[in-house]
Amino acid sequence: RWPKEKEITNMPLSDGGEGFLKTIQMIIKRTQKTQKIDIYEHTVTGPLPEQQVKAQYGVLNETTAIVEMAQAAGIEYLRKEQRNPMKTTTYGVGELLKHIEETHKNVKHVIMGVGSSATNDGGVGALQAMGMDIHMKQHHPNKKDTTFKKTNDKQLYKLTFDIACDVDTVFIGEKGATAIYGPQKGGTVTDLATLEKGMCHLAKIFNIQTNQKGSGAAGGIAGTFQTILGANLKKGIHLIAEMVNLDDAIQQNDIIFTGEGCYDASTSEGKLVSYIQQRCQAYSKPLYIICGKQEQTAENVFALRDAFDERDCFQQTSHVLETLCSTIPFQINVETYLQKVESSA
User: Using CA atoms, how far apart are residues 70 and 267, in angstroms rounded to an integer?
Assistant: First the structure.
């Protein structure tokens, strides 16, 4: 058991995906006494065109909007059988951005986290909702009927953007948005081939830098926003890590724990956990990763689904976590290790 008298540091982190807004809200509340963030809600189109969802967003110091793409187009809105990147859309993301621009006149900048999306439309739906003249018969871009007419409407370009990417995925190709994340968004082999052709067409008509790291984040919305809106692509975890002084926290603590939904091949594609692994290695700190499911072998990774069924994992999460953690075969005796650390300090 963990020594009760030892200090435990709980640190909110996000890489731009689900929980991005809440993480920033927690950080501001805990550490940034001079800053203020107000939370608002607006109803927009969900990841499926027939859905309506209530999407939250934040306004920081009245001038910067904090947007979590997953609030409008998140994969968590869909049951597994509903997931279909041939039908899902980022239109609600554009509706949310347009609402922010029209409602909060002092907002000039947007920080948008773009992970955990259900979409693979290259952000075209969002741009349509924001007023760009893009014609598309279906909900995903394809070579036959997707056309683009550059607009002179300056309203679309009023806001500046920082895009917090959760992955290093490029726009197209074997390491692209469709190939890497299309399957988990519900795409079949046939769907993926169609989507990839559409993304290639989109890259051509928009002149997107297809080899730019992060451009394929959230089904390509990052690359499209970079090209059309001049958005800056940033690593979401770098942005958050700077806000919470993550390196200092790792150095000041002796054992690090973190979590991941599914630990698989995509985890190393710039996701939060891979970054924490790198920083812990840099400071020679032991790291233990608790995940829901494990599909990639790695040291000190422990999966809930290896010991419990899915229903218990969702319905009795606290009990499942406590039980799993009590059985972790630590490579060190925790109490003895901490005593040694203290005696050498």
Answer: 18
